[in-house]
Amino acid sequence: MNNWFLYLIRCRNGRLYTGITTDVERRVEEHESGDKKGSKYLRGKAPLKLVMKKRVGNRSMALKIEAKVKKLPKIKKELLIDGKIKICEIKKKINDTAITKTRGN
Q1: Domains and CATH numbers, the chain
Q2: Distances in Å between the alpha carbon of 62 and those of 58, 83, 94?
Q3: 33-85: per-residue pLDDT in tens?
Q4: What is the pLDDT of residue 105?
Q5: Are the CB atoms for 20 and 61 separated by under 8 Å?
Q6: pTM to 2 decimals?
Q7: Which residues contact 31 (CB under 8 A, 6 or more apart)?
Q8: For residue 100, is pLDDT > 90?
């Protein structure tokens, strides 16, 4: 299934939370409700605002992109939100790394 999304949520304190899902609206509701299905990190940090959602492909690619984005400094995440960094650039880096590893370099 190629309907996985990367999403970023801004917390009350301005911090950004990164996640992946197949249903962004449902997932944001789970986070906002503060129940067990939502992220522990986001509990007590309302109001939450969805600031970005991008379709990223299958689950495997979504997990890889999520890991890369989580490692980015906040300034680069802000550039991603503003569209100044594109998801396709992150995908290309992931694919280039995979090719390099398979070649043994």
Answers
A1: 4-103 (3.40.1440)
A2: 6, 18, 11
A3: 988 999 999 999 999 999 999 999 999 999 999 999 999 999 999 999 999 99
A4: 57
A5: no
A6: 0.91
A7: 9, 17, 38, 39, 42, 48
A8: no
- Structure token pair of residue 22: 């197949």
Q: Tell me, what amino acid is at 103? A: R
Note whether 65 and 19 are within 8 A (CB).
no
- What token pair was written down for 15? 């911090």
Inter-CA distances, 88 with 62, 63, 77, 83, Å: 12, 15, 14, 11
Beta carbons of 39 and 75 less than 8 angstroms apart: no
Written as six digits, the tokens of 61 are 């690619």
